[in-house]
Amino acid sequence: MKHSDINMVTGYLGTYSSPLSEGIYRFTLNKDTGILSGPELFYRLPDCKYLSLYNNLLAAPVKSGDEAGMSLLDIGGGEPSLASKIYEEETTACFVTQDGDFIYSANYHQGIVLIYKKTDGGLILYKRIDIAPGAGCHQILFHEHYMLVPCLLKDEIRIFDRSRDYCPAGSIFFQSGTGPRHGIFTKDHRYLFVVSELSNELYVYRVESGIRMTMLSVTPLLTQEQTKQSLQSPASAAIRFSPDERHLYVSTRFTEIISVFQVQEGQVQLIQQTGSGGIHPRDFVLTENGAYLLAVNRTEGGLVCFPVDPDSGMIGPECSRIPAPEAVSIVLNEA
């Protein structure tokens, strides 16, 4: 699969282990037409359910027997080369992010955050932060010199001070049964938006200073009728901004929808709810120009590309789709 055309974008899918999936898959998107091509198996890696791409280094969880940990692939040459692999976990992490020096993983089942350091000799374990078994650690966010960890099953976001060796620095608390899953800061870090998996709500906070925040609003993502009609308890998942941050997008599984919000100075207004094109939309991304939204449906429907009106933020009818069994994470390489 060659990608020399300047109108083509390469993307990668992380998957759950299953007879239908073998690891990381690669696909392409035509930025002019919205047509998807592929996928092809890019690298065999069991249970690589979240991906992080940074400067041609692709990080993903890995599992081998009773061990789990982190893998780092160099994809700078177009094809994957294993840069390092390390086993320090019992179950695979559900979230991974990285910067130039470190890889950070949130482990839902073990209730831990692990920080791996990139060295010339490979990955080494730099720091282990034990929160609580079964805490449901689901993401890692950074704000100034703080690290925030949404703990879905503890109904709080734990905060750690990176300038003080990651010592505890406080929490953002939620009502029992809320299940904060993922959050996103505006680029200027004046506002924090948090989506809850269990209560299916959108929380908006204004950042006052440091980690002091004021909650501005709580907006239900679903009506009572939508919840009643769902065959399983609805579970909101991913949250993303449009490139200009005028619109916010949230996926909800088991109602199989993507909600679109208009955003202005921390105020949100629901303007659209549309189908994800399949079943179990755990993740999605928008292209850098905001022209397309790509939704990953784990159970049925595969990877679906939708056009987006950059001005209104509204999602249009699908452009194309490709198979993506058990895919639950997506990254685009638009560099």
UniProtKB/TrEMBL annotation:
UniProt entry tagged with the keyword Magnesium: no
UniProt-recorded Gene Ontology molecular function terms: 6-phosphogluconolactonase activity; isomerase activity
Keywords assigned: Isomerase
Entry-linked SUPFAM superfamilies: Nitrous oxide reductase, N-terminal domain (SSF50974)
Presence of keyword Isomerase: yes
GO cellular component terms given for this protein: cytosol
Residues spanning the signal sequence: none
Pfam families: Lactonase
Entry-linked PANTHER family: 6-PHOSPHOGLUCONOLACTONASE (PTHR30344:SF1), 6-PHOSPHOGLUCONOLACTONASE-RELATED (PTHR30344)
Protein family (similarity comment): Belongs to the cycloisomerase 2 family.
Protein name: 6-phosphogluconolactonase (Cycloisomerase 2 family)
